[in-house]
Amino acid sequence: MADSAKTASTLEQIEENLVKLTLNIEPALFEKALNQAYLKNRGKIALPGFRKGRAPRKMIEMQFGKEVFYEDALDIVFPDVYEAAIKEHNLDVVSAPEVDMEETDNSVIITAEVHTKPQITIEDYTGLTYVQPDITITDDEVNAEIDRNREANARLLSIEDRPAQDGDIVTIDFEGFTDGVPFSGGAAQGHELTLGSGTFIPGFEEQIIGKNLDDSFDVNVDFPEEYHAEDLAGKPAVFKVTIHDIQHKEIPEADDDFAQEVSEFDTLEEFKADIKSKILEHKTADADRQIENQLVAGLAKRIEDTNIPQPMLDQENDRLMREFANRVQSQGMPFAQYMQMMGMDINGLREMYKDQAREHVLIRLALEAIVRQEGIETNDEEYDQELDRMAEQYRMERTTLEESINEDEADAIKMDLKSKKAIDLMKAAAVEVEATEEDEEEGKDDESNE
Fold first, then answer.
1. pLDDT above 60 (res 110)
2. Does residue 128 come out as left (phi exceeding 0), alpha (psi in the -120 to 50 range) or beta?
3. Residues 332 and 369 in one domain
4. 228 in a domain, yes or no?
5. Closest among 101, 87, 105, 106 to 4, alpha carbons compared
6. Is residue 138 one of the residues assigned to a domain?
7. How far apart, in whole angstroms, are the C-alpha atoms of residue 355 and residue 449?
8. Which terminal residue of the chain has fewer beta carbons within 10 Å of its beta carbon, N or C?
9. Which stretches of 251-358 are assigned E, i.e. beta strand?
10. Residue 136 within a domain
């Protein structure tokens, strides 16, 4: 960093959470960067009278202007001097810098406007209220889990001596036509379809029921008026269908033999007891998360109106949108197709998450404030345990994960650990209250969105 010593920096507060760094770089340092930029680019430049890559720098600058290498030189010199200035002025930067440059007789001046993280104070985080979620386990929940296990361990039997029935899995070829013309996306071969699943256009699956292996036939349907493809919405269609395979799912009985086959237990009752224990563990963990969410939401309401830099809000909004897109795609639907079906665009999705993004940023700032105020720290053992947990979650080798984490990411992980300790302090000082009708309605909404 010897070169960075040649750079003087000053700081100007433009407005709340927005500053301008002015970096005065000695000409010798910028000249060195210009020469590096020339060496990097000369192989791409041809001038009359010189072999490609052999033209002197002065000749290139005379031909194309002395600023020809400025952009690359700035890319070379800026990162180190900018980082040094950030550390010198102890700035917590939350946006990419907006950079400008001018050249004087004695130096090169670079200005960088950046947003900084707001520093808030939490007057009181005690006495926050929460409603204890219900963790009662019913027989229906246990039986539903037994049924899921039965379904997962079902055998598929090929059927040749009877027509297709509701619940059968058929393998079909099909091609769809409107007005006698095939339409895009309306054909497939060897497609597996569970009859009664409702995955096809209404009326399609019902017309396959009663047909036999190797039958070829027409299926007549009408596309729904609200169908996502506007050119097909409300139109009648004919699908030419051939059945190549019919399979029946044979679901095992729920008895002791089944329990022994799918678990470590000898009896169905023991298996059910284990399932009940696991459901309780899951519900307890989920209830704990819900309590934490109630408390941090209450904490956000105690924060006075804070001027949050727009880049922080944009970054959180982008993160929420990525998570949403990943959830959609994990369910087997292309995100673009989902957006088209819902009649949404990116701007609409961004607007949908705007308030949530702001609340998340406020909560993060508030927890960091508690960490500062209470002097909360984390240690190497806790950090190592967190990396072990992350490696298991992402199914990565611990060493591979550790090598992929840079210094900023490591700091973020440590701050998350400290924030969890801040939440523990809030929980210890929180007050349980009875659920109101409004709370119960919100709980129903949450369940329907899961």
1. yes
2. beta
3. yes
4. yes
5. 87
6. no
7. 18
8. C
9. none
10. no
